[in-house]
Structures are given as structure tokens and as C-alpha cells.
Specification:
Layout: H1 4-22, H2 28-61, E1 74-76, H3 84-89, E2 105-109, E3 114-122, H4 128-144, E4 150-157, E5 161-170, E6 173-176, E7 178-179, E8 182-183, H5 190-198, H6 212-228, H7 236-250, H8 261-275, H9 292-307, H10 319-328, H11 343-352, E9 361-363, H12 370-383, H13 387-396, E10 398-401, H14 405-416, E11 424-426, E12 441-446, H15 459-469, E13 470-481, H16 483-486, H17 491-500, E14 502-508, E15 522-528, E16 539-543, E17 549-552, E18 555-558, H18 566-575, E19 583-586, H19 607-627, H20 629-641, E20 646-647, H21 655-664, H22 671-674, E21 675-679, E22 692-698, E23 707-711, E24 716-717, E25 721-725, E26 733-736, E27 741-742, E28 746-751, H23 759-771, H24 784-787, H25 796-827
């Protein structure tokens, strides 16, 4: 199918040719003139249409809702008849006569229909001033009607050049909105527009990194183009990085014609690296100029990056890092064996170390420079760092080692965007570096590469190397896998570290921190060098559940509820705060474990979280009855007939096990005060040799209320009680309401005789235990002594709420089981 603009031009040619033929060459020249004029009009219209499409895209990138009102905030030129109040503003405002005229685009406040932004778009970059003048013309109409607005002129097209000018009205007239003394070249976000309109003098506006959803969407587009150009996965990040750096270096002056574009990109990159004194790394971001497919499509990638403000990237924004890492997911997150640390975590760790612009900071495995950039961002926020200071910091105070050339080149490019690029970034193996700054750094920030095979360098060697770089009492913040702080195989390493250094804090990060790239669980260690750990000094332990982001469609995006505990975690560490459920403090020594789950006091769960956990339990409970209705009916029949016998568990176990459970005790208002906690049945430790049968068996699985299957086993436990998985799906707790056998990889919680707990209260207790699963892992086993102190409160209102839900669900579950019981009776 030809492109629409081709069809339009062909239609014009055919109409003109028909006219010429009809006159039999009479006045042919006249018709040719008309034909050319019509073609020009079509091309101009199509060019303007493409510019309007670009304008819409720019608005979306900046967070404007461009759907029709009321879903969106955008009104186009042909839509004013639907809004008489707005149409009245532009009545008689034609620039050429007494008639009405309307701006190309108007952004409004939907609730009040108040104009906020006037936009005029022109197809030719040479007409930018005309677009600005017309935007001001219509904005003056808004001012006359009592509405302060922002005026924006846009000109050009993606395949050539796009220009944006933004103006705000002051007492002296219209003035361009600037940043750093220069006119901004982007459309303000909705929030920025509100700020500009509310202030009478503010005209300085910093660029804003687009949302994760926008970055992911543009990464999709870029990835598709590179795939069509047959660029291998592992080289795509380099191509994107090269184009970003070239745009910045050239200030957008890259020729987009196929014969020039790739050569211009390489030339600009080479110039940037040479200026930075890193000419040898330019080859890592070199684009194959013989790729003709890419040469014809590169303009589209460049236009996309321009719209993302790459050209205006400044020292206080990490465009390259964020875009690159968003794009990185297309390589599976692990093409070059690296997982990049999310920016909110790098900043958090810089805050933990209280980094200042005077500190010498090292990252022995720097990747694209995220930790080093976080130092710049922190000093910018806390010390009002100026551009000249940043150039000095980048050049003299930041040291990074990266052995992978591509990643090192991207790190240098990241530094180039923050000065002249002269920096302490080395494309070297940190363990072999001759100029290693031993004892010269104040702070080390790092996320050492997690080993994938036995030949990889273990993380503890990176930690030791980082400590070697520090001065006495220097600070190290390092991300480690959970195994390092809990597994016995690392006990001697932990003890050795405490012999020479102080462990100031251990902070457990959210489980999804590195998703979608990796699902590993991690913690941050904060270590002070050179001061042996004292048993008299308390170490802070923190469990972070929310870092401001959540996983949505494979991308971590800002949480709608705004929950973010990172700043609170910094304060908890600095002030040794003890906040149940969040932070604790403990004196540790020797081979003691470092897991926050061991030292953060239990707290009564948030009511909303508890309700959600109960609902999930109820759904899984129902799924068990619907999945196994027939088997449940059969087992019930056998219990009724006496072929199977369900016995209270206390009658099935030894005096020793009974006494052990009693000795656990439990303070008032805890799980231990309401339940005796036992291990499961040793007879079911291994299912080998036990044939299939009619007895329900529970094991450490999250499926169908913990159901392993149905075996031939005659020591059924009388319900109701709670089972909790110790291995497998660790911490999964379920309420068992049918007689069953329980594997000894599960704990069994039975209400104490002095407490008459309802079935609903068992669900509440199980939900509480599930919310504490974060405390356990394969290296830190769930045991009776570790759950006995979990806080539990009997709330009559909540108990009734859960009881009502149980009754509603019971009608459905019993109906399913009764159906099979009737069928069984009929067969008999």
C-alpha cells in the first residue's frame, strides 16, 4: 500500500494531466503552473501534518494527556466550535482580517476550561520565528480574556531538524523561558507549566527526564529499527550510546541524509572522546558506516533521541544512564554479564555515606557510572554545585574502573555530558591497575558483578579492593546478595571483616529492585574502614519494602501511592532508629548473622496489607476445594466410615516435642502466646515408597493451600490448624480445614488450649506470618523460635469481617464437595 502522501501527489498529477489533455495543449503552460502549485500545496499540507504529529509526540513525552477532552487536555484548531467559552477568546483575532482565528493547539485545564498553553507549529525550521510570533498573538488573546498562558512555537520535521521555543509573559512583555541562561528547547511538563504560571518572575526551568513508560516505549522503537538493520543484541547499546553522545557533542547538528549520517555520528563521537583524553575508547562506540539499512533509518533514531532532550542533557541529569539501562533490557539484561544499579538506589547509597563535593569517591566496578553520577546529583542538591564545580569533581574526585570496553566507553560518555569528559574513568581490571589509589579515597560505592561461574571474581574480593582504596574511617556502601549475610559458608569472611572494620548498617532492598533484569535478593552493607568492630556499638538493620517504584509490564515505574522508604532508611541508619517492622539496632560480633530479619522488631501489620493478605489466603483456600473437590469428598467418606481416623496432633507426638513447644513461650500479643508450634511429621520427610492414596498431604508448596498430593497414609491430623513452609515456598502459611498429613519441612501451629480461636482468627494469624516472609531465605531458615515473636492482635471487628467472608465462600466450596459426595453415595 503506497504512503498516503504519494497517493495525494499522484491524484493531483492525474487531475492536472487530465486538464491539460482536455484542452489539447491549449493553455498547457497555465495548467502546468496550476499543477505545480497544487503539488506544492499538498506537500506543504503533508509537511505541516507531520510537524503536528511531532508536536503531539513531544507533548506525550513530557507527560501531557493528548486525548480529546475530557480524557485529555488538548484542543485542536478544528474543535473550538465544541467549546464556546474558548472560541469567544479568539473571536475576531484573525491576523489577516476581521474574522475569527484559532491556534493550532491549546492545552487547557479540563475542570475549568481555562487555557494553559498555546502552541503554533510550522513545517519549515526557517519559520520558527513565525510560529513563535503566532503563538504570542493567540496568547495575547488569552491574556486579554484574563488568562495567563505559556506560548510555544514549534518548527521543523524529524528528518531534518526540530526546534522549540517557550515563552512566558512578564510585566515587560514576552520573555523566553531559560535554563542556565539559555532558552529551553523543550515543551514544559504539566507540573512545570503550573509552576511557571503561578510565579510572576520564574523563567528558569530545568529539563525533566521522561517517565519510565515513555523511555520504554521509545526503546521499543529504537530496538525495532536496529533489529531491522541486523544489529546484534550485544552491539545495540553501543549504537544507541554513540548516537546520544554524537547529538550532544554536535548540539544536534548531525546531517540525517543517508550518505552523511553514520559518518557524522562517528566523527562527533571521536571528537568527544579525544577532547576527554579517552580517544582509545571511541572505537567501542563506533558505528559500521557500511550498514546501508541503518544509514537510511538512522534519522528516525536521532529524531527520537532529540525529542527525549538528549541534546540538552546537562550535568544534573542522567539521560544517558537511564536511557541506556532502559534499552539494556532488550539484551536480556545480561549480555555482558552486568546488572545495572537503579538510579534511586545509587543515590540512596551516596546519601548513606553523606558524600560531599570534597570527597574522593571510587567505584571499582563502575559500569556506566551510575554511582559516580549519584555523587554529582547529591552535591548538586545538597551543596548548590555549580557547573564549574561539577567539571572539577568529574575530573579530580571521581574514580571508576571498568574492564568491559563498551561499558567503559558509555561511562566516559556519561562523564562527557557533565563537563569536558576529563575524568578518572579507567578501562582496566581494578585488580591489575598500576595506578590504583590505595588509601586515597574517602568513599567507595559499588555493586560488584555477581559471579555466574566458578571462574568469575567473587564479590568479596571487590569489597576488599574497595576497602584498600579507602583512608582510615572511609565509608564503603556495597550491594551484596543475601547469601553473603546469612549463609554459613561466609561466616569466616564476615568474622574477618569485623576484625578489621566496623559494620555500621545492613539494609535489605526490595525483592524487585533489579527486576526485570534479575530476581536476586540483595542488601546494602555500610562499612567504616580501619576500625575493628566493637561489641559495644550497635549496628543498624533496615528492611526497605518500598523504593518509590513498582514493576509494571516489565518496567519499574513510579508508584501511584508514592510510597518510598529510602529517605527514612537513611535517617534510621544515621540516627540508629528502632521502628518495628522497618528498622532495628543490635550489637553483633563474631560469626553472628547479618540479616535484617533477625534484628528488626516485629510490628502489627498495616490493616490494608493484612486485609490483602487474608483475601489472597481465602482465594487459595477456595482454589484447593474446587481443584480437589472429588478427593476431599472421598476422604470425608472414609473418615465417616472409620477407614481413616483424624487425631489431634498433640496425641500423635512425643512428650519431648510437646515440652519443646511449651518452652518456646511467647510474649502477650504474639503468635507464640496464641499457638503451640510443632514440626511436621517425620514419616512424610520422604515420599519415596508411599503409594498414591486417599489421604491429603501438605508440603512446602504454594499451590492449592500447600497440597502436595494424595497418598496412602493413615496418621491424619485433626483440623483446624496452620501450616507454614520452612523450605520451598518459604513462609507460605495456610489454614488447613480438612484432615491431612503434614511433611516435616512444614511447621504446624495449633491454638493453645487456653485460647478459643475461631477459624477466622487462624486465617488472620496465617496472613500475619505471610507478611513476615521477607525475614527468611534459603540461607536463613524459618524456625519456631523465629516466628514465635511475631505480633498478633485479636480484633473482633476484623474477625467478624473474615468470618462473614468465610461463610460466603463456604457455600461454594461445600456445594462442590457435596456434588461428589452424592455421586459417591449413588455409586455405592
Amino acid at each position: 500500500m503506497p504512503f498516503p502522501w504519494i497517493l495525494a501527489v499522484l491524484g493531483t498529477i492525474l487531475r492536472g494531466w487530465g486538464a491539460i489533455s482536455a484542452t489539447k495543449n491549449q493553455n498547457a503552460l497555465s495548467y502546468v503552473t496550476v499543477l505545480i502549485s497544487e503539488i506544492n500545496l499538498v506537500l506543504v499540507h503533508l509537511s505541516e501534518s507531520r510537524t503536528e504529529d511531532t508536536t503531539i509526540d513531544l507533548l506525550r513525552i513530557q507527560g501531557w494527556r493528548t486525548e480529546r477532552v475530557p480524557r485529555g487536555v488538548l484542543i485542536r484548531k478544528n474543535e473550538y466550535k465544541n467549546y464556546p467559552v474558548l472560541a469567544e477568546i479568539f473571536k475576531g483575532r484573525s491576523k489577516t482580517g476581521p474574522g475569527d482565528a484559532y491556534p493550532d493547539f491549546l492545552l487547557i485545564d479540563v475542570a475549568s476550561l481555562r487555557p494553559l498553553v498555546v502552541l503554533e507549529a510550522k513545517a519549515d525550521i526557517a519559520n520558527l520565528q513565525q510560529a513563535v510570533d503566532e503563538a504570542k498573538w493567540y496568547a495575547d488573546a488569552c491574556l486579554d480574556a484574563g488568562h495567563q498562558v505559556i506560548a510555544i512555537g514549534i518548527a521543523g520535521q524529524e528528518k531534518t531538524q526540530i526546534a522549540v521555543r517557550t515563552l512566558k509573559h512578564l510585566d515587560a512583555g514576552w520573555a523566553e523561558v531559560c535554563y542556565g541562561g539559555l532558552p529551553i528547547s523543550w515543551i514544559p511538563t504539566p507540573n512545570d507549566t503550573t509552576t511557571l504560571l503561578a510565579a510572576s518572575t520564574v523563567v528558569d526551568l530545568a529539563p525533566v527526564v521522561p517517565s519510565p513508560e515513555v523511555l520504554a516505549n521509545k526503546a521499543d522503537l529504537i530496538n525495532r529499527i536496529l533489529r531491522e538493520a541486523a544489529i546484534k543484541d550485544e552491539y545495540r547499546p553501543a549504537y544507541v550510546g554513540a548516537m546520544m553522545l554524537a547529538l550532544w557533542q554536535s548540539k544536534g547538528r548531525i546531517r540525517k541524509d543517508a550518505e552523511f549520517v553514520l559518518g557524522d555520528i562517528n566523527t562527533a563521537c571521536q571528537r568527544a572522546f579525544t577532547t576527554a583524553g579517552k580517544a582509545d575508547l571511541a572505537e567501542s562506540l563506533h558505528i559500521n558506516e557500511a550498514n546501508h539499512i541503518l544509514a537510511n533509518k538512522a534519522w528516525e533514531i536521532l529524531a527520537t533521541l532529540e525529542k527525549l532532550n538528549v541534546v540538552t542533557a546537562l550535568f544534573d541529569h542522567d539521560y544517558l544512564g537511564q536511557l541506556y539501562e532502559t534499552f539494556f533490557r532488550y539484551t536480556g539484561g545480561n549480555t555482558i554479564g552486568q546488572y545495572f544499579t537503579p538510579r534511586q538506589i545509587t543515590r540512596f547509597m551516596a546519601d548513606l555515606c553523606q558524600v560531599t563535593k570534597k570527597d574522593i569517591v571510587i567505584d571499582p566496578a563502575c559500569g556506566t557510572g551510575g554511582f559516580l553520577i549519584s555523587v554529582i546529583l547529591r552535591t548538586f542538591d545538597s551543596e548548590n554545585t555549580k557547573y564549574e564545580d561539577v567539571v572539577d569533581i568529574v575530573k579530580n574526585n571521581l574514580i571508576g574502573y571498568e574492564s568491559e570496553p563498551l561499558t567503559a566507553a558509555l561511562c566516559v560518555a556519561n562523564m562527557i555530558l557533565r563537563g569536558d569528559g576529563k575524568s578518572g574513568i579507567r578501562n582496566e581490571n581494578v585488580f591489575l591497575a598500576e595506578d590504583f589509589p590505595a588509601g586515597k579515597c574517602n568513599v567507595a560505592l559499588m555493586n560488584p558483578p555477581f559471579p555466574h561461574k566458578s571462574t568469575d571474581v567473587p564479590p568479596q574480593l571487590f569489597i576488599e579492593r574497595a576497602l584498600e582504596a579507602l583512608t582510615s574511617r572511609g565509608k564503603l556502601a556495597v550491594i551484596v546478595p543475601t547469601s553473603f549475610i546469612v549463609k554459613k559458608e561466609f561466616t569466616s569472611w564476615r568474622s574477618g571483616l569485623l576484625s578489621n572494620h566496623t559494620l555500621q548498617a545492613v539494609i535489605e532492598l526490595p525483592d524487585e529492585t533489579f527486576q526485570p533484569f534479575a530476581s536476586t535478593t540483595t542488601s546494602v552493607l555500610l562499612i567504616e574502614k580501619g576500625v575493628p568492630h566493637s561489641g559495644r556499638q550497635a549496628t543498624s538493620f533496615v528492611h526497605i519494602q518500598y523504593d518509590g517504584l513498582t514493576l509494571k509490564k516489565g518496567v519499574r515505574v513510579p508508584r501511584r501511592d508514592g510510597k518510598n522508604q529510602l529517605d527514612d532508611a537513611v535517617q534510621a541508619v544515621l540516627n540508629k532508629n528502632v521502628i518495628p517492622g522497618f528498622s532495628g539496632a543490635a550489637r553483633i560480633q563474631g560469626g553472628m548473622e547479618w540479616a535484617p530479619g533477625a534484628y528488626v522488631p516485629s510490628a502489627l501489620p498495616d490493616r490494608g496489607q493484612l486485609s490483602a493478605s487474608i483475601d489472597e489466603l481465602l482465594r487459595r483456600h477456595v482454589s484447593f476445594y474446587t481443584r480437589y473437590a472429588q478427593e476431599i469428598a472421598t476422604q470425608r467418606q472414609m473418615v465417616e466410615s472409620g477407614d481413616l481416623v483424624a487425631t489431634p496432633y498433640r496425641e500423635l507426638i512425643s512428650e519431648t516435642r510437646l515440652r519443646n513447644a511449651e518452652e518456646l513461650g511467647g510474649d502477650l500479643g504474639t503468635i507464640g502466646s496464641y499457638f503451640d508450634i510443632y514440626y511436621g511429621q517425620k514419616e512424610l520427610h520422604s515420599r519415596d515408597g508411599i503409594p498414591p492414596g486417599e489421604t491429603l498431604v501438605i508440603s512446602p508448596t504454594e499451590q492449592y493451600n500447600g497440597t502436595y498430593g494424595w497418598l496412602t497414609f493413615d496418621k491424619l491430623i485433626q483440623p483446624p490448624f496452620i501450616t507454614v513452609a520452612q523450605t520451598g515456598s518459604i513462609g507460605e502459611a495456610f489454614v488447613q480445614t480438612e484432615p491431612c498429613g503434614v511433611n516435616d519441612d512444614c511447621l504446624i501451629l495449633i491454638p493453645k488450649p487456653e485460647h478459643e480461636l475461631t477459624e477466622a482468627e487462624l486465617f488472620i494469624a496465617a496472613a500475619i506470618i505471610r507478611l513476615e516472609r521477607w525475614r527468611f531465605s534459603y540461607g536463613r531458615k524459618l524456625t519456631p523460635s523465629r516466628i514465635v515473636g511475631f505480633k498478633m492482635e485479636r480484633i473482633s471487628e476484623l474477625e467478624k469481617e473474615v468470618s462473614d467472608k468465610l461463610e460466603q465462600w463456604r457455600a461454594l466450596t461445600e456445594q462442590a464437595v457435596n456434588l461428589y459426595q452424592k455421586n459417591t453415595s449413588t455409586e455405592e
